[in-house]
Structures are given as structure tokens and as C-alpha cells.
Specification:
Elements: H1 2-11, H2 15-32, H3 38-63, H4 65-71, H5 76-79, H6 84-105, H7 109-126, H8 138-156, H9 164-187, H10 189-194, H11 200-204, H12 206-229, H13 244-253, H14 260-283
Length: 287
């Protein structure tokens, strides 16, 4: 029983919660112009992402079991710890719980629709006939929209109207996350190839893929300082220049098959740090 419970939690991929928690917290900071109330942080920036991403990742574990059989045979379904029926049932429970919880804690109807949009995007990403995952460039754009644009913009409307600055920051960070999400395709390369998936590395080749990943990750490091210099954003956005060595290290990792997993992990945490930095830079630091 304990083994199955742990396996269910792992299908929710807890590591990925961090990114959306930080994204929502950043959106709340942009709207509140400071650190928001603890009650809101716990319910909206912590519990809600666990439910929404838990559903998305569990559903993905259900649909991607054949890829996992090749690239990650130790996961719950390929290893036989959980059946596909159990994982699907758990995903449905998480979906319903996420919808009910978001309706209960979000006072604004528009915010609730942001959550529903995220849940819908998670569904069409994994489930046929739409199955965005198998549709080339559409897949990383969908991931970035679900992980960054929707939660960041949605959370930014919590305490004040959404500003043009928020949209600008959200778009730039979404483009960055497109690059980072493509690094995940490096990890799944063998499984995607075996199942004839139209991912970026398989359609464009490795050199172009690395260039796209690098360009995406580097976008905020170029645009935010530039926008700071021309007075569109606060001068604190010059802090993004300090992230340049990290991007160069990620690209070094991306050139070796044995470090593809590290490339993805570093890209993931790089995006999380970059998103949080945008909130800190915008509000003027943490009091």
C-alpha cells in the first residue's frame, strides 16, 4: 500500500510543482507590488499548483506509458507498481478536486477561468485526437503557456488590473520556457523516435534544437536589460545579466547525450529562478 501511495505521488512529479508555485507567486507579487498575504500564498501559490500540475502530470503518465517503457522503465506503470486504470482514476480525482478547490478559493470568476483554461490545455496536450505533445512546435508553446503565461497573468490580476508591463514580462518569460521545454525532448529522444513523434529534435536535428533552446533561455537576458536601459522596465532588470554564465553552462551540457537529463533539470530551475527574479526586480526587492 505504501509503495503504491508513493508511486501515485511520483506520477504527480513533485519537482515540477516548484516552477508553477514560483510563477504564481511572482504574478501575485507583480499585482500586490510586494509579498502577498500568507493565506493567499498557501492556497493559491502552493495548494492549487499541486492539484493542477498533479492532474497534468498524472494524465501524462497515463498517456505516455509506452515512451516511459523505453526511456524510464522504472516509473510506476512500466514497472507494474500501478495499473493504467489506477493512474487514470487518480488523474480524474485530481481534475475534479482542482476545479472545485479553485472555485472555492478564487473570488474572481476570471481567475477561475484561467485555472480551467490550464486544466483544458493539460488535457488536450496528452489526450488524442488533439494530443499536442506529438505536434512539433505546438507542444513546447503549449507547455510554456500552461506553465508560465496563464498562471503568471492570471495571478497578476488577483489584486489589481493587469498592466502592459505584466503582459510584456509574461510573454518574454513564456518564450524562455518554450526553449526550456524543448530540452525535455532531448531526454525523451529514444522513446519519441521509437514511437515516431514529431518533436523538435527529430524534425529539425540536434544542432538547430540546441540553437532554439539557447535562444529561448537567453531571450530574457537580452530583452530585460535592454528594456531597462530604455526605461521601459526598472533598472533592477539589469540583474538578468548575472544569469549569463548559467545559460552558457546549460548549453555545454546540451552537447553531450550523457548530460541531456542535467540539461533539462538545469533549464527547468533556470526558468524558475528567472521568473522569480522578474518579480523581485519589478517590486524593488524583498522587504
Amino acid at each position: 500500500m505504501v509503495e503504491k501511495l508513493v508511486a501515485l505521488i511520483r506520477t504527480m512529479r513533485p519537482m515540477t510543482w516548484i516552477s508553477m508555485m514560483i510563477t504564481i507567486l511572482t504574478g501575485m507579487m507583480l499585482s500586490f507590488r510586494g509579498i502577498p498575504p500568507v493565506k493567499d500564498v498557501v492556497s493559491i501559490a502552493v495548494v492549487l499548483p499541486i492539484l493542477v500540475l498533479g492532474y497534468a502530470n498524472t494524465l501524462n503518465a497515463y498517456t505516455d506509458y509506452k515512451i516511459d517503457e523505453i526511456t524510464r522503465p522504472y516509473r510506476a506503470i512500466p514497472s507494474g507498481i500501478l495499473t493504467r486504470k489506477t493512474v487514470l482514476s487518480f488523474a480524474i480525482v485530481l481534475l475534479i478536486t482542482a476545479a472545485v478547490f479553485s472555485h472555492a478559493v478564487l473570488d474572481c470568476l476570471s481567475l477561475f477561468f484561467f485555472v480551467i483554461a490550464g486544466l483544458a490545455l493539460s488535457t488536450i496536450y496528452s489526450i488524442g485526437p488533439t494530443r499536442i505533445k506529438a505536434r512539433g512546435f505546438v507542444a513546447p508553446i503549449a507547455i510554456a503557456s500552461g506553465y508560465v503565461f496563464l498562471p503568471l497573468v492570471g495571478a497578476s490580476s488577483l489584486y489589481a488590473p493587469i498592466t502592459s508591463h505584466v503582459f510584456l514580462i509574461a510573454i518574454i518569460l513564456t518564450v524562455q520556457t518554450v526553449g526550456a521545454s524543448i530540452s525535455k525532448d532531448l531526454v525523451d529522444l529514444k522513446g519519441d523516435k521509437a514511437l515516431s513523434m514529431d518533436t523538435i529534435p527529430l524534425t529539425l536535428g540536434m544542432e538547430k534544437t540546441r540553437l532554439i533552446i539557447f535562444s529561448g533561455l537567453a531571450i530574457p537576458l537580452v530583452l530585460f536589460p535592454l528594456l531597462s536601459v530604455i526605461k521601459v522596465l526598472p533598472t533592477r532588470f539589469l540583474l538578468y545579466l548575472a544569469l549569463i554564465p548559467w545559460v552558457l553552462y546549460i548549453m555545454k551540457l546540451a552537447h553531450h547525450e550523457l548530460t541531456y537529463e542535467k540539461t533539462y533539470i538545469h533549464s527547468f530551475f533556470f526558468c524558475a529562478a528567472s521568473i522569480l527574479l522578474s518579480g523581485i526586480a519589478y517590486i524593488g526587492g524583498i522587504p
